Amino acid sequence: MPEGLDRPVLLIAGFLAGPRTIDALDHVLTVAGWRVRQADVGRNAGPAYHGIEHCERDLADLYKESGMKVRVIGHSRGGQFARVLAVRHPEMVEQIITLGSPLRVKYPNYAVVRLPAEALDRLWRTGVFGAVDPHEEERVDEHRYVPVPEGIDFVSIYSRTDGIVDWRTSIDPQAESIEVNASHAGLPNSMAGVGAVAAALARR
Prior knowledge:
Layout: E1 8-12, H1 23-31, E2 35-38, H2 48-66, E3 70-75, H3 77-88, E4 93-99, H4 111-126, H5 134-143, E5 153-158, E6 176-179, H6 191-201
Parallel strand pairs: 1-2, 1-3, 3-4, 4-5, 5-6
């Protein structure tokens, strides 16, 4: 892992995940001297725009505290959020690194994840879990596919043995793609995944 020199990193957990799923990466980065913050998204199971709002606050706080642009690392759905942050706030983002993120589709292709995600989305939109702003959710959907602004380094780390996300949906024409051998859950925790993150961070 390259020396962090107190440079800021925002970590975003994946769908139905939570802090424990990225704690190992958090630890490695912190030991290497990076200023790490985990986005306050809980298990990242709510409407996308709610999660994005929390990420935006964390990004702004980290940017102000450090006085430097932030590197945003997201696992799975967290990578989708990282991409949206880059589109919305290029003045605060230095680099985005995605791990097993479906960048070309909203939901993973595999039914084991896609079906519950779609069901939750329908429930959110009906207001079962409280008031939802459909306009804000649509804005997030639009920003998922807007080109990442020039000047922001973009790295997508993927695995053909992911098992949850079809690796082909992690290939973004704007991104430098790095292939590793890891499971979906292992991408932010395995030696291969963490090593790929280190290589990506060393680009800047």
